[in-house]
C-alpha cells in the first residue's frame, strides 16, 4: 500500500520518460476577480484562485521586482514569489445556486495540509537539451476561457494542454502521465469521482527568446511539436524553457450525490460560466528570486519531486504557506456560501461555439480596502497521504518532518459532511 502511495506522490518521476524536476505545493493566496495579465487595473470578468507571492496585485508591471515587493509566498520554496492562477470551480445546485468547490492538497505535498491551492512542477528538458530559465518580467497564459469544444487539431500538442482526471478511491492512476486518454478527459468527468477531480495543465515550453510577454500573453511561447516530453521546439519559438506543469485537486466528494446532478450532464462549472471544462486556462507571472530557479534546475535533477530533495532551495513549513494571504478586494461573495449566480456576468454558455462576453455587465467593478484575514485558513483533508515518509521499494531519503504530523498523514475514513458545512471559507 505504502509503495503505491509513494509512486503517486512522485507521479511522473518514477516513469521511464522521467525528467529532472522540482515539485511543490502552494496554498491559496486569495480567491477573487483579479487578472493582472488580461485585465490590468480592472476587476476581471470571472473569479480566479491565486497562489504564490503576496505582491500579486490588480496591476503587475513587468518591471515590478516581485521578490522585493513580496513579504511572503504561499509556495513551499520561499524563493518562489511568482504568481499562478486559474479559474475557480463551482458546483451548480439543481435549485440554481452555486457554491465554490474547495481545493485540496496533492499526494505527498506535506507534511501539513495546505489550504486550497495547487501543485507546481518545473521539468528540465531531458537528454541534455539546452534550456534557459524565464527572464525577469516573463509571463504567459495557456488555454482560453471562451473555449467550449474540442476545437484544436488532436495532433497539436496544445490539444492536450488542459485535461481532467477522475480520482477513484485513493488511486489517481499513479503511473499514467497526465493527458493520457483514457483515463483523462478533455471535458469534466461525466460521472461522480469518489475521491475528487484533478485538473492537469501544461504550459508552453518553447519561447521566441525575445519577448517576455505578448498582447495575447501566449504568442511569444509555443508548445513543442509531437507531445510534451522529448520533443523539439518549433523554429518560430526555438528557445527551450522549463516545462511548467500544474495540478489542481478539487474536493468534489460533498457533491457526488446523483440526486443533485442534472439528468443530462454533470454539475461542475468554471467561474466563467463553462460547464464543459474546455475553457480551463492558467496564468503565470515569473517571480523567482535572483538565479534561484536556475540553480534548482541545475542541481535538482533527481526526479523524485520531493521538495526536501532540492537542497539549493529554502523550504518553509505548511503553516507559513497557509498564513501568507491577501484580503479579497472585490466586495462580493465568491466562496463559502451558496450564491445565486456566478460572480461577474457569467451565464452558463455550453458551446460548442466560443463563449461571448455579456455586454453592460453591472457586477461590482471597484476594489475595497480590506484587512488580511485573521481566521485560521481552512484546509480539506484529502483521501490520500500528503506526507512523504520515504518508505518505498526504491528507498527515498526519509522526510524527517513526517512523523511530527501523524494526524495529517492519513485522511479519516469517514465521508465529509454536507456541502454547506465543508467549504473552505475564506
Ligand atoms: C497594489 O497596488 C496598489 C496601487 O498601486 C498599491 O497601493 C498597493 O500597495 C499594492 N499592493 C501590494 C500588495 O503590492
Ligand atoms: C439551494 O440549495 C442550497 C443548499 O441547500 C441552499 O443553501 C440555497 O439557498 C438554495 N438556493 C435557492 C435559490 O433556493
TrEMBL record:
<protein>
    <recommendedName>
        <fullName>DUF1996 domain-containing protein</fullName>
    </recommendedName>
</protein>
<feature type="signal peptide">
    <location>
        <begin position="1"/>
        <end position="20"/>
    </location>
</feature>
<keyword id="KW-0732">Signal</keyword>
<feature type="domain" description="DUF1996">
    <location>
        <begin position="35"/>
        <end position="288"/>
    </location>
</feature>
<dbReference type="Pfam" id="PF09362">
    <property type="entry name" value="DUF1996"/>
</dbReference>
<dbReference type="InterPro" id="IPR018535">
    <property type="entry name" value="DUF1996"/>
</dbReference>
